[in-house]
Metal-binding protein
Amino acid sequence: MPRLGAAADTTDIYTFEPEVLSTAQCMGDACAICHVRWPRPRHALGALPDGSEVYGCAECAGIAAAHDAHAGEPELAAR
């Protein structure tokens, strides 16, 4: 999982820890979140500490962008 820090289509950057990713995820051959390999992930989700980009599938990139868009909004709690 990424350390807090960006999602696709934002100016922030998530920093992913390579120790928790597979080789395919680190190389950009698999989604950094759900591991899907086909179609090949094309959406930049963040970076590794060495600056290499980490990619995600369209679905995970959309979820990350939506989460980032709501990050500053307060959560609602129901009783």
User: Anything to note?
Assistant: Strands lie at 2-3, 14-16, 43-47, 53-56. The chain is about 20% helix and 20% strand. The first strand starts at residue 2 and ends at 3.
